[in-house]
Design brief:
By secondary structure, the protein is an all-alpha fold. The protein has 18 helices and no strands. α16 packs antiparallel against α18.
Length: 444
């Protein structure tokens, strides 16, 4: 059997917490806020919610089912007596996507850690507001600063994964997730008490219907739903491989999807009121969290503390996600017989190296472009936009069409009617939506 060291979650709560920890990450705070900001706020939120409910959640349940059925890694998850061996290629692809995403995710997470420390030691709070955009450009352009923080973050990730499922990942999630929940609520409470906060709320909750006319919004919403839930990268398959009992998969999936979405909304309720209260532009793009917010922290009362809290939140949320990305290839390696510690260190080192071009891409390799994008953006596009839907399609086709119904319906944890509806979504709606997504991206 796999689970060479018999490692597993202590129970359902441990599994759900770890899965929520994986889902909640840079995607909920950094990515969600700028994508929502660029796509008109409330209208985006509405479409995003629908994407989570209609496509993300059913796919998440597929992954829980696949993982818990195989009790193994992503490669075993795609094997079945009736499936050609070629299917394992889908598992290989999933592990590759997780690895690639980890390589640059750690770079951005490194920036967040750097900012956290810079708020703690007072260097950032000491800067005047006008100097902040330049400070960010200087930092990411610095020849080795970005690399240094990328390395430190990757080491932290490897340490947690090396410690194992129960003693590493579950323990960290039990510790961090409640702290993150309390912090994001406190931040939102504070942001809402600012004069002018209501404009931020209106941006997030009062739709401007005309935004729905832009096709880009739908692409952005589906992409964000997949990225934020953490589906189609093998992570949820791998995590579900460590559950001891296959009960109530559907309610676990609902808990994870709901927790993840709620967190993004509350984070939005913290970020947009702050942005609007101080007259900043919500459509600032990826630098929203690293430039716009610090500019506001520089002038708002108690800004230093808010900065410390915000960047701790961002760094810790990124850690629980990065760990899950690393666990995907590590699980494959341990099943192939490598000791966990060795696998964690070796694969993290490779991801560290693979991330070097992304880390240098905003600095000394700034001139290097791949298909008109910077290096980090190009890797992100390849992994999170192109390969990710491919893995997603493999997941739903495998569960919907390859596995016999007798192995899916009864284990879904759904009442018969709901189970049939779910299967119909998995067979038709989800693959079509992902195909359209891919097609529009490539040819649109
Ligand atoms: N879902 C995480 C986030 O929102 C990112 C992630 C993607 C984590 C894939 C694991 C797997 O930031």
């Amino acid at each position: 059997m796999h689970q060479s060291n018999n490692d597993a979650w202590t129970g359902r709560a441990g599994f759900i917490l770890a899965a929520i920890g994986s889902a909640i990450g840079l995607g909920n705070i950094w990515r969600f806020s700028y994508v929502a900001g660029e796509n008109g706020g409330a209208a985006f939120l509405l479409v995003y919610g629908l994407c989570v409910l209609l496509i993300g959640l059913p796919v998440l349940l597929c992954e829980f089912l696949l993982g818990s059925r195989a009790r193994g890694d992503v490669l075993t998850a795609f094997s079945h007596p009736q499936a050609p061996r070629l299917w394992r290629g889908a598992g290989v692809l999933a592990a590759l996507v997780a690895f690639l995403i980890l390589s640059y995710y750690s770079v951005i997470a490194g920036w967040a850690c750097r900012y956290f420390i810079a708020y703690l030691d007072g260097t950032l709070p000491a800067l005047p507001r006008a100097a902040i955009p330049q400070a960010f450009s200087d930092f990411i352009a610095h020849p080795w600063q970005s690399l240094l923080w990328h390395t430190l973050f990757m080491i932290l990730t490897a340490v947690v994964v090396a410690a194992g499922i129960e003693r590493g990942i579950e323990r960290m999630s039990r510790l961090l997730m409640p702290v993150l929940a309390v912090m994001v609520i406190l931040l939102a409470g504070y942001a809402l008490s600012l004069p002018g906060a209501s404009r931020g709320l209106a941006f997030l909750f009062t739709p401007d219907w005309s935004a729905l006319a832009s096709p880009g919004l739908y692409l952005a919403a589906l992409g964000q739903a997949f990225f934020s839930l953490g589906v189609a990268m093998g992570v949820m398959i791998t995590y579900a491989g460590y559950i001891r009992s296959r009960e109530r998969l559907a309610s676990s999936a609902v808990a994870v999807a709901f927790g993840d979405t709620l967190f993004a909304v509350v984070a939005g309720m913290a970020i947009f009121p702050i942005v609007f209260a101080f007259g900043m532009d919500p459509a600032y793009g990826p630098a929203l969290a690293f430039v716009t917010l610090p500019q506001v922290f520089a002038i708002m009362p108690g800004g230093m503390w808010i900065g410390i809290a915000f960047f701790f939140l961002l760094s810790a949320a990124a850690l629980t996600s990065a760990v899950s990305l690393l666990e995907v290839p590590v699980a494959v390696a341990t099943r192939l017989g490598l000791p966990r510690r060795f696998a964690a260190v070796a694969i993290a080192s490779c991801a560290l190296l693979a991330g070097v071009p992304s880390a240098l891409g905003s600095g000394i390799w700034r001139e290097v472009g791949i298909a008109g994008r910077g290096i980090l953006e190009a890797v992100d596009f390849l992994a999170a936009d192109l390969l990710l839907p491919l893995v997603g399609i493999a997941v739903v086709v495998f569960v919907g069409w390859v596995l016999p119904r007798t192995e899916t319906l009864p284990h879904s944890g759904l009442a018969p009617f709901l189970a049939r509806t779910w299967l119909a979504v998995v067979r038709y709606l989800a693959p079509v939506a992902m195909l359209v997504f891919l097609f529009t991206l490539v040819f649109g």
